[in-house]
C-alpha cells in the first residue's frame, strides 16, 4: 500500500492510496482500470497489517462483465485471501447515478453475487454503493441491501468547505430515517472533504 498525505486547514492526515493505477482521475474506466489484481494487492496488504476492508465489484450494463468480476471473486476466495477480513462487499459504485444500469439491474447483480457468496459459505454483507439521491429515488434499494452504502461529496454540491460536514449530515438525515425503518445501517463509502 502506498501512503499519501492530505493537507487541509494546516492539518496533515495520513492516508492510503489503495490503487496501483496511474492516470487521470476522470479518465474512462478502460484507461483507469488496467488490472483486476488490485483486490489481491489490497487483501494481501490488509492481512499483513490486520485491517478489515470493504471489497468492491465494478458493474456495467454488460452481465458478461459481472461474470468476469465473479470469476475474480472466486479466485480470491480460492486463494484464501477473501476471508473474515472482508467485512462488506459493494456490488457497483454509482452505476445507477451514472445511468450505466437501473436500480432493478443493480439489485439483480447484487443478489447474484450474494447468492454466489452464500454458496461458497461466505456470509459477508453485500450492498450497492451510490449517491444519496439515488437511494432516495429508489427506496427498493434499502430493502435489497444488507446495509446502505452512500457516496457523498459536498464539494460537488458547491458547499463551502466550512459547511461541508453540516451539508453531509443534512443530506443524510432523511435517508437515515428511511434506513432505520428498514433496520439498515448506513455507511459513508466515499466522501471528500466533508
UniProtKB/TrEMBL annotation:
<dbReference type="GO" id="GO:0042973">
    <property type="term" value="F:glucan endo-1,3-beta-D-glucosidase activity"/>
</dbReference>
<dbReference type="InterPro" id="IPR050732">
    <property type="entry name" value="Beta-glucan_modifiers"/>
</dbReference>
<keyword id="KW-1003">Cell membrane</keyword>
<keyword id="KW-0325">Glycoprotein</keyword>
<keyword id="KW-0378">Hydrolase</keyword>
<keyword id="KW-0119">Carbohydrate metabolism</keyword>
<keyword id="KW-0961">Cell wall biogenesis/degradation</keyword>
<keyword id="KW-0624">Polysaccharide degradation</keyword>
<protein>
    <recommendedName>
        <fullName>glucan endo-1,3-beta-D-glucosidase</fullName>
        <ecNumber>3.2.1.39</ecNumber>
    </recommendedName>
</protein>
<dbReference type="InterPro" id="IPR017853">
    <property type="entry name" value="GH"/>
</dbReference>
<dbReference type="GO" id="GO:0071555">
    <property type="term" value="P:cell wall organization"/>
</dbReference>
<dbReference type="GO" id="GO:0000272">
    <property type="term" value="P:polysaccharide catabolic process"/>
</dbReference>
<dbReference type="GO" id="GO:0005886">
    <property type="term" value="C:plasma membrane"/>
</dbReference>
<keyword id="KW-0472">Membrane</keyword>
<comment type="function">
    <text>Glucanases play a role in cell expansion during growth, in cell-cell fusion during mating, and in spore release during sporulation. This enzyme may be involved in beta-glucan degradation. Active on laminarin and lichenan.</text>
</comment>
Amino acid at each position: 500500500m502506498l501512503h499519501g498525505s492530505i493537507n487541509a486547514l494546516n492539518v496533515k492526515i495520513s492516508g492510503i492510496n489503495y490503487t496501483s493505477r496511474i492516470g487521470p482521475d476522470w479518465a474512462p474506466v478502460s484507461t483507469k482500470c488496467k488490472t483486476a489484481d488490485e483486490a489481491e494487492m489490497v487483501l494481501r496488504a490488509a492481512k499483513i497489517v490486520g485491517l478489515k476492508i470493504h471489497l468492491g465489484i465494478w458493474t456495467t450494463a454488460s452481465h458478461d462483465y459481472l461474470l468476469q468480476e465473479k470469476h475474480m471473486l472466486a479466485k480470491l476466495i480460492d486463494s484464501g485471501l477473501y476471508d473474515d477480513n472482508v467485512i462488506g462487499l459493494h456490488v457497483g459504485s454509482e452505476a445507477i447515478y451514472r445511468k450505466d444500469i437501473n436500480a432493478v439491474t443493480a439489485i439483480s447483480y447484487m443478489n447474484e453475487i450474494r447468492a454466489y457468496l452464500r454458496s461458497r459459505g461466505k456470509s459477508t454483507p453485500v450492498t450497492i454503493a451510490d449517491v444519496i439521491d439515488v437511494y432516495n429515488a429508489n427506496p427498493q434499494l434499502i430493502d435489497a441491501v444488507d446495509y446502505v452504502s452512500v457516496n457523498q461529496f459536498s464539494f460537488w454540491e458547491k458547499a463551502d468547505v466550512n459547511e461541508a460536514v453540516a451539508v453531509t449530515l443534512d443530506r443524510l438525515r432523511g435517508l437515515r430515517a428511511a434506513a432505520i425503518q428498514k433496520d439498515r445501517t448506513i455507511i459513508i463509502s466515499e466522501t471528500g472533504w466533508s
